[in-house]
Amino acid sequence: xxxxxxxxAIATNGKGTYEITDxxxxxxxxxxxxxxxxxxxxxxxxxxxIIMENADPTARRDLEKFFERxxxxxxxxxxxxxxxxxxxxxxxxxVITRSSEVIxxxxxxxxxGTWQGIFLFEHRRAPHRRQIAISVMGEAIDTPLKIx
Amino acid sequence: xxxxxxxxAIATNGKGTYEITDxxxxxxxxxxxxxxxxxxxxxxxxxxxIIMENADPTARRDLEKFFERxxxxxxxxxxxxxxxxxxxxxxxxxVITRSSEVIxxxxxxxxxGTWQGIFLFEHRRAPHRRQIAISVMGEAIDTPLKIx
Amino acid sequence: xxxxxxxxAIATNGKGTYEITDxxxxxxxxxxxxxxxxxxxxxxxxxxxIIMENADPTARRDLEKFFERxxxxxxxxxxxxxxxxxxxxxxxxxVITRSSEVIxxxxxxxxxGTWQGIFLFEHRRAPHRRQIAISVMGEAIDTPLKIx
Lengths: 148, 148, 148
What we know:
3 copies of one chain form a homotrimer.
Chain A: E1 2-13, E2 16-19, H1 21-31, E3 33-42, E4 47-53, H2 57-70, H3 86-95, E5 100-106, E6 109-110, E7 116-122, E8 127-140
Antiparallel strand pairs in A: 1-8, 2-7, 3-5, 3-8, 4-7, 5-6
């Protein structure tokens, strides 16, 4: 058994979904873990994680439109707007999506389904540099001791 | 420390919640892990996971009705409807629930509360065969080396 | 590699957000794990977990107001109201937030961002004693065998 951690920085350029599947897959590959899990964690409260259809961009466009309507920027009762209309909305959109996601690893690969991608969901209008903490845990290929 | 992975197939027959607690408990039991975690991951983007009250079926009925209203099939601005009115709605309902769920294991059992069940939440009208990836990690009963 | 589990009890006094970051950090610290993950799991279906901005209380106030409107207590079609108007609403609010959260550990510390706190989100009006199951897994400082 072993554990590897990494931090990945993602540049965002306004609201929307940014695929990070390759970055997470690279951390899994580099770890040498064959069987285990990878934990993906976003270190912010104004962007979040989702696992989403990654083939047809209209699916993500509908999702983004839905969130604009579900948590609108001009909500009159919002108090937490010091950083703009996208301040409280960012936190609320994060809370109803995810901060952490854990994906099983088997045969050295994340067990994502055919159409699944991991995305950073940016809720801020301004460009940001976002940090994703990754932890890969499990049995490595060349582990000298098999405790299974 | 050891890790065991499994894939469970669940047949769904239209929209609704399908309890999978027993399937996950069986994987935990089979693994022999006494102390650790079990990761449950749904390999699709048009169904999802929830942990929900499993005693009174009216609780799940209210939940299902709520989701029909929160993300309605006839939403006029949805573009991603090639597979029907339940296409975009399925992805959005998945995003606001969960793809992965991690449950601590102690004394060889998942630490679910008295009324908690693990459910597959199917968002599609047509029957589907869904895959759940499971990863059980921790200390086995008969682990020859205690590294704690 | 090692794993440690703990259960933490949190007293709640009505609807709202209760920070539990210190309780989780204490479990991580006590475990001696330097590199790994901590899994936090709420053993109930009428309260949930969120990772939220923990500096300005107005952010949480907006969130709480948003949830009151998104899943209102007086929803006419709710059937599951035997325990009061906050019965079905509690389960639904739990489903659209989180039951489990997994946070990577590096250098002996949870990799939370600067403004992130872990909160128990209580959806019930009456006081409750809530149980949080915690599982810390990874490499300990003084692990005698390094399998990395």
